[in-house]
């Protein structure tokens, strides 16, 4: 298997929604505690080649590809800024935009897959902000969480609905047309580090927590989780639903493993 | 080799010109400067920076400094195999040799690092190289941070180490402090806050970072708001000085506010409506912690009565908003022992006060409507926030009652009270009264748990005040009402029937169906389970139970009933294996039903069950197909049209769903569930105005459909009809129907 080693510690990796062999990687020095960051764009093949790399003064915690332009990447940077890079431009003219509104580290970004011009950022300043590519300032700020917001994820079907995962032990469901959250899901007893929507069922959401578990919820019946997936040895850092199978979930954890789950079957852990 | 990697690794970390705040491993450079191989290494640097994507350059950055205390211990412990193995895999011998050597300089007292070759005498300063790369020696820092993080994997306490002056800027320090704190909380979640503090502090002292500067604190408890209120209330009182201070503060307040009503108001003003509730909770939580300290048992009827009432109301309130509320969580968490309050110093003393107070109060208050009653009444009608407000409002309205209460209380005369209190402290009754509260609280929790289990385990809850009790033929009446679509009335009549004849399976079944059509699946399940007890093989009952459990998204239970439907079916019983397997797997059951469908393709019921099962697995396309097949066989089954509609709505075909619901409503105009579902489909399409009309229509037929009220509220706010929210909250159907005619 071809290997590409990043100089810094990896924080996030995403496939391009336009080219199946293109990959962007967000990295940060010293596990993101202090130091530079770098955004790699990689071309998969028999060998992995680096198409571009952008350096930042602070660690890059997350990134997302634009859903409307194949060359745009949004990076969430530890200094609280969001930087937009255009691969078609030379490194000298990048980033094409640096949006600095968050007061603290920016920990998650997500591009809307339905309304393809907008994206969300989640920050340790307890807020989620809504942005559009063409505007220099955020469209809206969602401030309700009582502690760091680690990630925000758009619903794959409804352009206005998203979920946010926070250290205040709740996941909140929002509708951008509403001023406040539409649902508060006290999903775990410990901090929640990530959430993601099922790509096949727009009512199913997974949350990953410091309590080492992943829980799958149906937002129509949020009193009991649909499934609780135990198996990680440390806090679960990220969780993603498979784009290919509705019941398959991938997760990675501070225990340095990543797990594959099928929450519909008895022995949910199907790969590590 | 070791040095080369290190140097190039360090160089790769730093990209010239990318950031002035972010330099190379200047320490590494410094080290090279005076080592014997300086020239060779210097030549490496430009190459390294030029080809940053060369994998071999990066090894250094990933390696933890094995020699530092945290990770060094980890080697011996291996307590967390996966994590540390993975990380150790990265370490090359060369790397650790370097780190060992480094450590030897810094901490010569660690014996087993001695004797390594080569690198024992490098000076720390090398100005010639530093001119290119300014800032902290990243190499040391990075290794140090790595070992800090890895200390988590072995649960090893992280010891402070003296490091060279790193020249970190204030901003850098702030970053390290904040980010390491947050990360430590992720890693050490199962350890105490003290441990986390110790870990972070060890890191910070080593790096010469002042931990006093305001860092990103820990998450402010599970209930930040409560904590705030708590602090507020603590601030209002002059700190933890024990009973005397509390009493004197209290009397001060009385002096300030002679009028009892203002006292009440000022209390509210100081705490806000919610503050009152949280205050109450805090006292309760204190009780819980006392409970942990002491355990003897002396009954206190008054207090018990009060908590019992509270428990009752808590369990009865099914409003999800409430179930979801901080208060409810708080209480339930407390019940699981997840919350304990650390500061016991002040409250235990003050606590006996409420205990005492409650007793006195109850004694004096036997005649009138008790506080607890009022609490219950108001609780029932509203969620917690509304409740607090309402409570405040009611207080003023019911001035008479309230005045009486406050007067009674003031009659107690504060001085007497405090004297009595002191007397009690003297002869030890203080303990016992606290115990009373603790016990009462215990009992309340138990009862709450019991009640919760009761409703969850499907015990049917009868309505109070049933006018049909004593009716000569309630079953017939119920059937008639059901046919007319007066579901709520039908429910009452059928309840009267099953009270009269608890063995009437048909009565229970119809009751279950009435509840299901009324959008109350929990009650429907409860009734159907009673029907099944009476007649375990009734196919309609088994099918209905399967459907209701599917609606509640309880897959295992749904499978169980659908499977027994098959087993008890005269035609298909043979398909199912005689001995029921321990665990039903979805795929097996689906296969059986597919066999059944092949056996007799004209049986609509089998297709219905298949449709339900595909709903369970969310294969909506197949479910729609199954229901459509069934509808060809049974085109006049209104509930089947509704099922089809619901499935279509679930698979985001809301427009088709509306057609199906319309069919159901044409067949049965009083079908509340279809009206409500119609509203949901319109809402899903963003047609909120339309959806409101349908919800209102459904509610006009069954005002008790709590779900529909909530949907209505959501649609009203989505349609920006905030002017109607009040009518919705007060459940004023007249206004709503006038505003939203259908």
Number of helices of chain B: 39
Distance between the termini of chain B: 83 Å
As a percent range, the share of strand residues of chain A is over 45%
- What is the overall shape of chain A? globular
Which strand order do you get reading across the main beta sheet of chain A? 1-2-3-4
Q: N-to-C SSE series of chain A?
A: EEEEEEEEEEEEEEEEEEEEEEEE
Task: Determine the N-to-C terminus distance of chain A.
Answer: 17 Å
InterPro entries (chain A): Beta-prop_EIPR1-like (IPR059104), PEX7 (IPR044536), WD40/YVTN_repeat-like_dom_sf (IPR015943), WD40_PAC1 (IPR020472), WD40_repeat_CS (IPR019775), WD40_repeat_dom_sf (IPR036322), WD40_rpt (IPR001680)
Family (chain A): Belongs to the WD repeat peroxin-7 family.
Organism (chain A): Handroanthus impetiginosus
Main location (chain A): cytoplasm
Description:
The complex is a heterodimer of chains A (272) and B (742). Chain A is an all-beta fold. Chain A folds into two domains: 114 residues, Methylamine Dehydrogenase, Chain H; 129 residues, Methylamine Dehydrogenase, Chain H, CATH 2.130.10.10. In chain A, 0% of the residues lie in helices and 50% in strands. Chain A has no helices and 24 strands. Chain A has a four-stranded antiparallel sheet with strand order 1-2-3-4, with no helix packed on it. In chain A, strands 5-6-7-8 form a four-stranded antiparallel sheet, with no helix packed on it. Chain A is globular, with a radius of gyration of 17 Å. Chain B has four domains: 166 residues, no CATH class; 233 residues, no CATH class; 59 residues, Serine Threonine Protein Phosphatase 5, Tetratricopeptide repeat (Alpha Horseshoe), CATH 1.25.40; 207 residues, Serine Threonine Protein Phosphatase 5, Tetratricopeptide repeat. The N terminus of chain B is likely disordered. In chain B, helix 1 packs antiparallel against helix 2 and helix 28 runs antiparallel to helix 29. Chain B has 39 helices and no strands. Chain B has 742 residues and is mainly alpha-helical. The radius of gyration of chain B is 36 Å and the shape is globular. Chains A and B meet through strand 4 of A and helix 4, helix 6, helix 9, helix 10 and helix 37 of B.
């Amino acid at each position: 298997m071809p290997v590409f080693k990043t100089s810094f510690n990896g924080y996030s990796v995403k496939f391009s929604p336009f080219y199946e062999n293109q990959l962007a990687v967000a990295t940060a020095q010293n596990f993101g505690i202090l130091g530079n960051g770098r955004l790699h764009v990689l071309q998969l093949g028999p060998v992995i080649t680096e198409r571009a790399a952008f350096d930042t003064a602070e660690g890059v915690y997350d990134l997302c590809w634009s859903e409307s332009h194949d060359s745009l990447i949004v990076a969430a940077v530890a200094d609280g800024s969001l930087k937009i890079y255009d691969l078609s431009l030379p490194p000298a003219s990048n980033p094409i935009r640096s949006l600095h509104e968050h007061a603290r580290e920016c920990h998650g970004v997500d591009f809307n897959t339905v309304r393809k011009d907008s994206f969300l950022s989640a920050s340790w300043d307890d807020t989620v902000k809504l942005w559009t590519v063409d505007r220099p300032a955020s469209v809206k700020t969602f401030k309700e969480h009582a502690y760091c917001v680690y990630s925000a994820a758009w619903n794959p079907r409804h352009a206005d609905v998203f979920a946010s995962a926070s250290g205040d032990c709740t996941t909140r469901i929002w509708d951008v047309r509403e001023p406040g959250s539409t649902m508060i899901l006290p999903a775990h007893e410990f901090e929640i580090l990530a959430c993601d929507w099922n790509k096949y069922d727009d009512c199913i959401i997974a949350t990953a927590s410091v309590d080492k578990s992943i829980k799958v919820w149906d937002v129509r019946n949020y009193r009991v989780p649909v499934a609780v997936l135990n198996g990680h040895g440390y806090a679960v850092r990220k969780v993603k639903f498979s784009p290919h199978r509705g019941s398959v979930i991938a997760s990675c954890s501070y225990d340095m493993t990543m797990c594959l789950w099928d929450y519909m079957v008895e022995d949910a852990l199907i790969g590590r | 080799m070791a040095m080369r990697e290190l140097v190039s690794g360090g160089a790769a970390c730093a990209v010239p010109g990318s950031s002035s705040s972010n330099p190379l491993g200047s320490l590494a450079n410094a080290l090279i400067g005076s080592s014997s191989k300086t020239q060779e290494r210097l030549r490496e640097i430009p190459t390294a920076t030029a080809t940053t994507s060369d994998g071999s350059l990066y090894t250094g950055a990933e390696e933890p400094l094995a020699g530092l205390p945290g990770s060094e211990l980890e080697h011996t412990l291996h307590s967390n195999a996966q994590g540390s193995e993975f990380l150790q895999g990265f370490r090359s011998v060369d790397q650790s040799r370097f780190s060992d050597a480094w450590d030897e300089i810094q901490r010569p007292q660690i014996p087993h690092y001695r004797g390594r070759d080569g690198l024992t005498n490098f000076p720390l300063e090398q100005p010639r190289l530093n001119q290119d790369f300014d800032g902290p020696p990243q190499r040391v820092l990075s290794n140090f941070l790595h070992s800090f993080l890895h200390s988590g994997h072995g649960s090893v306490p992280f010891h402070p180490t003296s490091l060279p002056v790193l020249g970190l800027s204030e901003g850098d320090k702030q970053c390290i402090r904040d980010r390491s704190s947050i990360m430590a909380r992720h890693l050490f979640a199962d350890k105490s806050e003290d441990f986390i503090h110790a870990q972070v502090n060890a890191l910070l002292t080593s790096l010469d970072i002042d931990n006093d500067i305001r860092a990103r604190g820990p998450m402010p408890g599970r209930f930040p708001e409560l904590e705030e209120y708590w602090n507020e209330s603590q601030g209002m009182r002059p700190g933890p000085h024990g009973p005397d201070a509390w009493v004197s503060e209290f009397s001060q307040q009385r002096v300030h506010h002679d009028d009892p009503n203002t006292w009440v108001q000022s209390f509210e003003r100081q705490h806000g409506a919610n503050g009152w509730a949280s205050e109450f909770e805090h006292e309760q939580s204190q009780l819980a912690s006392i409970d942990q300290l002491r355990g003897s048992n002396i009954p206190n009827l008054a207090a018990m009565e009060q908590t019992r009432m509270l428990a009752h109301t808590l369990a009865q309130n099914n409003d999800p908003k409430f179930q979801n509320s901080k208060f409810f969580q708080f209480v339930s968490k407390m019940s699981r022992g997840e919350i304990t309050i650390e500061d016991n110093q002040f409250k235990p003393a003050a606590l006996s006060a409420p205990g005492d107070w409650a007793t006195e109060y109850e004694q004096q208050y036997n005649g009138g409507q008790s506080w607890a009653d009022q609490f219950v009444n108001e609780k029932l009608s509203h969620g917690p926030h509304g409740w607090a407000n309402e409570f405040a409002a009611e207080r003023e309205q019911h001035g008479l009652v309230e005045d009486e209460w406050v007067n009674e209380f003031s009659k107690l005369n504060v001085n007497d009270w405090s004297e009595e209190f002191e007397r009690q402290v003297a002869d030890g009754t203080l303990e016992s009264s606290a115990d009373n509260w603790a016990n009462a609280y215990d009992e309340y929790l138990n009862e709450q748990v019991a009640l919760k289990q009761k409703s969850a385990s499907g015990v049917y809850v009868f309505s109070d005040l049933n006018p049909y009790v004593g009716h000569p033929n309630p079953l017939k009446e119920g059937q008639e009402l059901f046919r007319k679509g007066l579901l709520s009335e039908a429910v009452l009549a059928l309840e009267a029937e099953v009270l009269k004849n608890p063995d009437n399976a048909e009565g229970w079944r119809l009751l279950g169906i009435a509840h299901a059509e009324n959008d109350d699946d929990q009650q429907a399940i409860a009734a159907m389970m009673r029907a099944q007890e009476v007649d375990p093989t009734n196919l309609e009952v088994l099918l209905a139970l399967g459907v209701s459990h599917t609606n509640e998204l309880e897959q295992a239970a749904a499978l169980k009933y659908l499977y027994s439907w098959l087993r008890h079916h005269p035609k298909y019983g043979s398909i199912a294996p005689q001995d029921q397997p321990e665990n039903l797997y979805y795929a097996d059951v689906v296969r059986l039903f597919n066999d059944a469908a092949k056996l007799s393709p004209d049986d609509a019921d089998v297709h219905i069950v298949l449709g339900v099962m595909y709903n369970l697995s969310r294969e909506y396309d197949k479910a729609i197909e199954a229901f459509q097949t069934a509808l060809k066989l049974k085109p006049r089954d209104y509930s089947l049209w509704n099922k089809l509609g619901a499935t279509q709505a679930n698979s985001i075909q809301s427009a088709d769903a509306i057609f199906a619901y319309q069919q159901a409503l044409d067949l049965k105009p009083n079908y509340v569930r279809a009206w409500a579902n119609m509203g949901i489909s319109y809402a899903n399409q963003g047609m909120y105005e339309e959806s409101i009309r349908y919800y209102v229509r459904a509610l006009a037929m069954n005002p008790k459909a709590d779900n529909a009220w909530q949907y209505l509220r959501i649609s009203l706010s989505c349609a920006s009809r905030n002017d109607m929210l009040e009518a919705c909250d007060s459940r004023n159907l007249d206004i709503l129907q006038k505003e939203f005619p259908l």
